[in-house]
Batch of 2 targets.
Target 1
Amino acid sequence: MRRFLYYGLIVIGLSGCNAKHLVYVHETSLGLDAAVSTEGTGRFVLGYDRDTYAIVPRKGAGLDAMTLTALGCIYASGLDNVSFNHFVASGLAAENIAQDDATLKQIKTAIQRGGDQCEPQQ
Amino acid sequence: MILMFSVRPVKVLILSIALTAGCAVNETGLVSVRHFENSAVHMVNKEAWGVYLSTGETDGGLVFGHMKRSLFYLKPQSPMDLKLENLIKTFEQAALRESEKVNMDLLQNQSPIAWASANEGFIVNANAMRIGLILGLESQQAIRLPKDFDGAFRLSYSSNEKPLAGFYRTKLQKTVNE
């Protein structure tokens, strides 16, 4: 068992250095869930768990992380009633959007379905 | 001898369940597949009961039970000027409409940029996203963009409403899917 854990930690550690994708995830599990992810996360769950996370890769070794403008609104009620709303822009688009307050406000309103807060769907 | 008699009905029962529930591989077999699209995105919905095997890069694995998933793929698109004043309006109007004109083999060879999945039963994941197993229920909503992605992507997914997805590419990329 101890050896298995060591191998698991090594796999997670190695994969954490090599994120090649920008990832936004919301996941829920009930029961037994054991997994390692190629994007640098690992999990072992016995029971109920809900995770929301993002992984932003570097542009290259030793370089900065990606340039991003991202807004998200996730509302979950129960196991299968999930509303997942995201907007993400990168590169030049991210720079332009981040400097435009009116556009940012529009995006936020759209992501939050017209409300001031992240709310459930009616 | 007693053990043989007690094991045989169990084997017959498992075999009967497997045969009556059916099995499917990717888009072949007892699986419901529907395709939707707008000008920028393909969406493929799949649902299956029984044994389902997927060989896709990001959803590869085996499900014993029930699986339901929506996969979003980018269409080839030329880079365009980003018009901020119409950005959200453009995305909101990009309704996904059902269509049968699609080459599923081409999509199967691409990586989806987003997906939503719900599985129940015994699930073995062996794909580019995760390696592991689940016994019970799991659901996942995810966006996975390559790190050279240059543009804007909008996704709205809900179990109760029609999904919405839009994409702007602001610079030509070497590869969209890795």
Note: Residues 108 and 116 of chain B are 16 Å apart (CA to CA).
Target 2
Amino acid sequence: MTDPILKTHALTRYFGALKASDAVSVDLRPGEIHAIIGPNGAGKTTLIAQICGGITPSSGRVEFMGRDITGLTTRARSREGLGRTFQISALAMEDSVLQNAVLGALGASGRPWRFFGPALKDSVLRDQAEDALRRVGLHDHLHKRTAELSHGQRRQLEVAVALTLHPKAFVMDEPMAGLGSGGSKQLTSFLDGLRAEAPILLVEHDMDAVFALADRISVLVYGKVIATGTVDEIRANAEVQKAYLGEDT
Amino acid sequence: MTFILLAEQVLNGLQFGIMLFLMAAGLTLIFGVMGLINLAHGSLYMIGAFAAAAVAGATGSFLLALIAALAAAAAAGALVEIVVIRRLYDKDHLDQVLATFALILIFSEGTRWVFGSFPLFLNIPEALSGPITLPGGIQYPLYRITLIIVGLLVAVGLGLLITRTRIGIQIRAGENDREMIAALGIDISRLYTLIFALGAALAGLAGALVGAIQSVQVGMGEPVLILAFVVIVIGGIGSIKGALIGSLLVGLTDTLGGVFLPQLFKLVMEPSAATNLGSSLASMAIYILMGAVLIWRPTGLFGARA
Amino acid sequence: MIRETHLNIGLVALLMAIPVWALIADEPFIITLMTRAVVFALAAVGLNIALGLGGLVSLGHAVFFGIGGYAMGILAHHAQTYTPLAEWPLLIEGTKSMPVIWLAAIIASTLAAVVIGILSLRTAGVYFIMITLAFGQMFFFFAISWSAYGGEDGLSIYVRNGFPGLNTLVPVHYFGLCLVILLAALFLNARLAKSPFGLALNAARQTPARVETVGLDPTRLKLVAFVISGAITGLAGALFADLNRFVSPTMFSWQLSGEIMIFVIIGGVGRLFGPVVGALVFVALEHLLGGLSDYWHIYLGILLLLIVLFGRGGLIGILCGRERVHD
């Protein structure tokens, strides 16, 4: 078995007396999609924020490509190659689709301190941005204002911005949220191919997508991982059924 | 430097600070509950002072003058809230700044139009004029002592209002969650008008009280407003306790710095240069204090939100 | 709806045509008024970079305007009194040369903007507004207490400073100089807005979390914008002081900070020519209404209130509609 790209060691986070993460240890191996599921309030968003930066764990650590990144800022983690998409689209709504993607390419270039030449005429940035947009299927909307995109297209743009960074691992917070079944299927097949490029830690509510995509699933309940395993193992797990799936299915 | 001089200056600082508190408390309450930054708060201070001066001039009664100040500022506050301010709650801070800046222009010029450009004078009431001898043999103006006591009473009253009364519960609920108090069946727009009028009345009271020891003139409110902002930055937005501590810190720093910094420099430099440098530095002391708090605690001493 | 580019071209034409007309009609006062508008516009172009691009509601931009003004005042004061500015560690003489004064104004306001920016950007939102306002007041009181340079009375400079090849005492010469600087600043602003830095700054205003996750530092982007903004407003301050041949602490006042912001708002936040429209309208109102009534600020207040409550996007927004997405 190969070494994991991303690994958390007993991440624990208190909010006052509430334990939002309780000794969470999950890992992400090359080429896989590892889904994190769990009911609302299970601590998925807190977990992501500890992995990507934003919330500091009370104890435990995060390891990425063999390096301890627990103390790094969000920016440093992103420069290390951690690509994140947001649950609620964090896009520059007044700007065009292309501008949002160029922002990603600009971040990847690490050279924002250029004050004169037009960003959109920089062929390196532009090629990278257009390439990412083409891959998610937004290439026909380059100059549309992001605020005018449909909900699904914004989700696609979220992924495209992450792509421009050529990350070594993706952390995606509910990319399917609010997509219709058509959009969801399209994104599912895209993510399916993406895993060969970089593994994906996928927090998702859409069970069809999770079962279709995941190599492994971890179930988070009240901040604790109650089970990790393949799709079949999770389906068969009695505790999971009781705690979570039982309510749904 | 004698003990008496020091004690006098500390009292001056307290008196200045406690008047700042009356301004800062209203501002911080309005921000905490409604999320509104109100630059026109200084105008309400001015309105209080002018109302007091006008009524005192006509009736000769200081008490009536104070009542007039409270009433005029509260009425102006309520009116402004209903006509303009409530349209700003959902807008961004830039719009709030501009609209309330516009209100300053309107209030200032309107007041100049009605009362003219010359300062008015408000006299200290007979009963409170003259000095009083405090323990330790300190002679201190009775009126200023009264200001400190009135200010502290208001602070205690505000504290009780917020922690003990129904309105206070509503105010605290409003700070946390607008929808919740709407769900509780509280008339939110009436609550907002009430809070705004309360903040305005405090500002008007401060204006009238201070008006008796300074001149009453157009533009008197804004320097105090900006100091109140410094107080809030130091104390933390939304916190009445922070406003009180911040006010006293600013009042003491400003007063003591103005007196003692030049003297301190005289120990190491020749007198005229020391006076120059000392008073220049003293004029900046509270802002340096603010800068230090920002480095140490960006959200202020008692502030929770960013 | 008018195309914004057409409006901008028209504005530049207007800026050139009015002084030419005034020259022919022998109305030097109009040229001075236009110079005032152009200098105010330059100050507001500075603010617009922080406010329009960076979303930084700075209510303390008079700090930079005042610093620019005092840079001129102090250098020219030493030149006209033949006293050195400093003798140690090296001898610094005063000067009557505009380019040197401008450079000093830009450097001094840059330094101030770095310090104020670092402190203020530790916070955001209303804190930022209150802190910038407070720093403005700090400089105001400092200038008042600084008796070496006139304290409350300010400094008078008897002869306008010189620029190689021009007679700056001729109003239209000085106007031309100011206009060229304004147009250069607008050009810089236009390029900046589309540059990689401008793109990142624009995003930092709208969604700082996204900017972080692409590996950029939104606070640092905003700081640089604030510094560029302060430097331009500082240069405007030096020009303003030379226009009046006078500097005083009022150049640091909060009213002036508010007015610089009003120029931006009346024209339209984030619009390239917003500051130009705003400053022209302001100076016109000041001149026309100020002649009719001593209390013209009431009308200014009402106009401002109406624009905030009903006319989002300022006058350019009303004339041209929403800004187009750049391509």
Note: Chain A has nine helices and eleven strands.
